[in-house]
Structure formats: C-alpha cells, structure tokens
Write a structure and sequence with these properties.
- A hairpin with a 6-residue loop joins strand 1 and strand 2.
- This protein has a two-stranded antiparallel ribbon.
- It is elongated, with a radius of gyration of 18 Å.
- The longest helix is centred in the N-terminal third of the chain and has 20 residues.
- Helices cover about 50% and strands about 5% of the residues.
- It has two domains: about 40 residues; about 100 residues, Arc Repressor Mutant, subunit A, CATH 1.10.10.
- With about 180 residues, the chain is mostly helical.
- Bound molecules: zinc ion.
C-alpha cells in the first residue's frame, strides 16, 4: 500500500506541475488532485515564481457565447470530444492534450489564445452538467458551443456570420481574456 500511494502521489505532483505550467488556477488543481491546498500553493510558487491569483473562478456560460471565445471554445471542445473518444483517457488528461493542441493551433494561426486552461476546464464541466450543448452551423456544418436548449434550427456560426465589428478591432474590443 505504501508503495502504491507514493507512486500515486508522484503522478499527482507531475499532473499538478503540468497544469500549473499551462496556467491552471488553484481551484482547478484542488478539484483534480488530492494534494493539500498548502502543498499546491508551494508547488505553484515554485513553478511560477509567484503566488496563485486569488478570487473566484469565472462562472458564467455567457463568456463562451461571445464571438471570438465561442470560436476558440468550439475548436477546443471538438478536439476534447475526439480525445475523450479515441484516446480513452481520463477527462483531465483529455483536457490537457486538447488544450496543448489548441495552443499549437492558435500559434500556427498567429492568434492569441482566447481560452485559458481554467476556462477550458470550466467549459468541459458546463457540458457535463448539461448547461451547454453543441449546435451545428447550417452553413459550414461545424459544431459550435451553445447554451443548452437554445433553438438549433437555422443556426449560423460566428465564422460564417461574423459581427460587423469583428476583424481589425476584435482584439482591442476583447482584452486579454486568457489570463482569467
Ligand atoms: Zn458556420
């Protein structure tokens, strides 16, 4: 038993370090590992060189409906669904793998990642609790994040029908959501 718990602990520390490096908030670390809060805070300081940010996690589904976050969230979530199905790993590992792919994708496109790891994790939890659904765009056929029970008929996504202000000014109008 003692050996097993040591192995388990090493795995949890490794996971916590990986999550911290990807930008996880403390609440995410506490939910996904059984390490103590003090231990997690010490790990966080060691990895990041600073204390974890205080305060509540964002807890509204509305953020995922705004234009650029919706596109980024939909990209992430479709990757997550694929990972969960094909790789058959635990949700947190599917989240980490999908999030790395998402970061790689935005880097290749030269875009700032709008979705933080904590937001991505929150998104998966919203889906699991039935607050969100995916809706298929009637023009491009892609699947996009939507509120649960929103009408699906005639849905057109933000890529096929961008708001008129989108484009040149979209970053200026949506400052740095990735830090939360
Ligand atoms: Zn579309």
């Amino acid at each position: 038993m003692a050996t097993r718990s040591v192995v388990l602990e090493v795995k949890e520390v490794a996971l916590a370090i990986e999550l911290i490096e990807l930008g996880a908030r403390l609440q995410l670390l506490e939910a996904e590992t059984s390490l103590s809060r003090d231990r997690l805070i010490r790990l966080y300081k060691e990895v990041k060189g600073e204390s974890p940010p205080k305060g509540m996690l964002p807890f509204s589904t509305d953020w995922f409906m705004t234009w650029q976050p919706n596109i980024h969230s939909s990209l992430f979530y479709s990757t997550f669904q694929f990972m969960s199905r094909e790789a058959r790993c635990e949700p947190i590992h599917a989240i980490v793998k999908s999030y790395r792919l998402y970061l790689e994708h935005t880097r290749l496109l030269g875009e700032e990642p709008a979705l933080s790891l904590t937001r991505a994790w929150t998104l998966v939890r919203y889906f699991a609790s039935g607050l969100l659904q995916t809706t298929q765009c009637t023009r491009c056929g892609g699947h996009f994040v939507a509120h649960a029970h929103d009408p699906r008929r005639g849905y057109v996504c933000g890529l096929c029908q961008p708001p008129s202000r989108a484009g040149r000014t979209r970053r200026a109008s949506q400052p740095a959501p990735a830090t939360t």
